[in-house]
Each structure stands twice: as C-alpha cells, then as structure tokens.
Amino acid sequence: MPLGLIALAMGAFGIGLTEFVIMGLLPQVAQDFGVTEAAAGWLISGYALGVVVGALGLTAATTRLPRKPVLLGLVVLFIAGNVLTAIAPDYGLAMTGRVLAALSHGAFFGIGSVVAASLVAPEKRAGAIAIMFTGLTAANVLGVPFGTFIGQQFGWRSTFWVISAIGVLALAGIAALVPAAKGPQEQISLRRELRAFRSTQVWLSLAVTVLAFGGMFGAFTYIAYTLTEVSGFAAGAVPWLLVLFGAGLVAGNWLGGRLADRRLDLTLVAFIAALVVVLVAFALLAGSQVATVVALVLMGAFGFGTVPGLQSRIMDYAGGAPTLASGANIGAFNVGNALGAWAGGVGISAGLGYTAPVWIGAAISAAGLVVMVVAAVAARRTRAAARTSRTDVPATTSTVPVRVV
Q1: CB–CB of 360/343 below 8 Å?
Q2: CA-to-CA distance for 167 and 154, rounded, in angstroms?
Q3: How far apart are CA 392 and CA 243, in angstroms?
Q4: 180 in the Ramachandran plot: left (φ > 0), alpha (ψ -120 to 50) or beta?
Q5: Tens of pLDDT, residues 302-311
Q6: pLDDT tens digit string along 361-389?
Q7: What is the Cα–Cα distance from 107 to 355, expressed in whole angstroms?
Q8: CA distance 81 to 175
C-alpha cells in the first residue's frame, strides 16, 4: 500500500473530526459566546455550506495547478481555520474559522480522491479511495468521542487546538509521502473540466449521491431522539451507540471499496438496496433495543459503503477531467446531508413521531436506488452498443482483407 494513502487518510481524519466534533460541544460553545443553541447550530450549517462552496469553487480555481501543492495549500487553510476557531474572541470570528476550514473540506476530498486513485493500478482505485476515506470514518469512531472528552475536560477550544495539531501532522505527511507528479504535466483547463458535466452518467451519479447518502443522513440526524424516545435507551448510552454506528461506517467503507473494484455498479445497487431494507426494518423495529443496535451498525455499513464506489464512478465517467466532477460529488454528499436533515425535521414537525426521519430516509434512499438502477442499465447498454460497433464488419465484395479492431 502506498504510504501516501496513509498521509491522505490523516488529513481526512482531521477534516472529519472538525466537521463532527462540534456537535458534542455546542452547549459549551453557546455558553461561551452567549448565544442560543440554535445560533450555535449555525456553526454546523455554515460548515456544510462552506463544504459545498469549496468543493466547487476552490476545485475549479485550482484545476490548472499541480495537485500536490494544491493539497498542501488546502491543509494549510484547514489549519488556519481551526486555529482561528480556537482563538476566536466572539461568535463571528468562530464562524469565520469554521467556514475557512470547511472550504478546504470539499476540495481536499475531491482532489485527494483523484490523487489516491493515481497512486494505484486502475483496477484498485475504489479501494485506494476507501483507504483515504477511512480517516473520515475513524474520526467518527475514535476522534469524535475523544475530541468531545478533551473539550469537556479542558474547554472546547482545546479540541480545536488538537485538531490543528493533527492538521500539521497531515501537512508533513503529505509533503513527505505523496509523490509529486513526474514529467511534464498536461495543462487541464476549467473548460475541459466542465466538459465532464456533459455526461448523463455524471449527473446520474451526482443524483444517486444526493439521494442515497441523504436518506441515511436524514435518519442519522435525529437518531438521538429515536434512540431515547422510541428505543428507550438512556441519554448516556447514546455516545456509545454512535460508536457502533461509526464501526459500521469503517466496515462498510472497507468492504464497499473492495467490492466496487470488482463490480462497481452491482455493488452500488446492492448496497443501496440493502440500506433501504435496513432503514425500513429499523423504522418497524425501533422499539426493540437489540434490533436497534443491529440496525445502527448495518445502517452505517451500507450507507457509507457506497461512498468509495460513488466517488470512483463519477471519476470514471468524467474521463480525462475528473477533478471538478470529483469535487462536485463531495458537494453532493453535503447536499444530501442537508436534504435528509430537512426532510426528517419536516416529518417530526408534522407530528409523525421520532421514527418519521427513518421512514423518510428510507423513501429518499429508495429514490436513489431507482436512479442507480437506471444509471446502471443505461451504462450497460452503452457498453454493449460500443462492443457491437467494434465487432460488426459491413459486408463487402472487395478482396482486400478487413481488419477488425
């Protein structure tokens, strides 16, 4: 395994930590700045919006630059954003720091996916992307509980100092272990990158990302309410149950990457279908604590197991200009997050109960499954037509031999 993948995973770990750890620290942040919990919640929403902007804007702005220096610059931006958050004397500067860190998020994963894929043979690219995303899943399993503990013991600012230190380690690792591209570099223009969006398959892949991942996140956003109000768990058990969910993320990311390298579209269809089944079963059996624990693990596994395949798929259909499409797919994950969270909240506000987000998530993911099946069938027909055009030889009376290519 190329050591550069470990360095990329370290960067992904830090980014995942800064995205999610704030959820456990919101009460402290709100009290420190003298704002309401709703206002403090914008430190999460503002981050998500920053991810989408950075995924498209920064990726587009750096298409003509060598990828390794761009990655290093993004990590520097990430460090600066977290340092600013750690020292912010007021809410406004804290939000600025969050947005700065978020701008690096989408572009880092978008460009990092392309770099990770370039470090291995073509038939192993989904697995390489999965290794990089392992840092993100590990942040959920290990980093968030630890970061929350640090913040509770030494103040929430200490957590962001730790995240900044992780960013410095990632910066050093990428500088030392990710190889620079060799030889003269092809200049890739923004116009060429935008051509990738002429592909129907690129748009279908983006739609699958929004819907399939959005369904899982819709159920996950309000999971604490489901666990305590429906399943009957004590509030103190929720962090440990979320560790189980995170373990599912790690397992699904690893397995999804390996299987996607063998049969990409089949793996995605199977994982999304399994996610729908798990969400429906969870909604039906949420009153059982045993069933809930099993559903949490499987929801994380099948939900995040789609990530390496979806990222690899959009890069495949983007052809020779995968960077902006890859970044757009990272943005699509966050659009899905916002869609799922909004839809789940609508269900609760309508008085449908705390299993409503799970039912709604299942419906959204089912829509993603339909789109994925359509995309897979269309891709299969296109490949079959291409094979036919290569092998069909028109009838001729010429004595000159015909060469089939």
Answers
A1: yes
A2: 20
A3: 56
A4: beta
A5: 998 898 888 8
A6: 999 999 999 999 999 999 888 888 777 76
A7: 35
A8: 20
Give the separation between CA 135 and CA 346, rounded to whole angstroms: 32
Q: What angle do CA 2, 202, 120 make, to 5 degrees?
A: 10
Q: What is the chain's length? A: 405
Q: Which of 119, 147, 135, 276 is nearest to 213 (CA)?
A: 276
CA–CA separation, 166 and 235 (whole Å): 30
**3-class SS letters over 325-373:** HHHHHHHHHHHHHHHHHHHHHHHHHCCCCCCHHHHHHHHHHHHHHHHHH
Q: How far apart, in whole angstroms, are the C-alpha atoms of residue 79 and residue 101?
A: 7
DSSP per residue, 140-187: IIIIHHHHHHHHHHH-HHHHHHHHHHHHHHHHHHHHHHSPPPPSSPPP
User: For residues 310 and 3, what is the distance between their CA atoms, to the nearest angstrom?
Assistant: 24
- pLDDT of res. 85: 94
CA 107 – CA 59 distance, rounded (Å): 5
Could you give the CA distance from residue 332 to residue 320 in angstroms, rounded to a whole number? 21
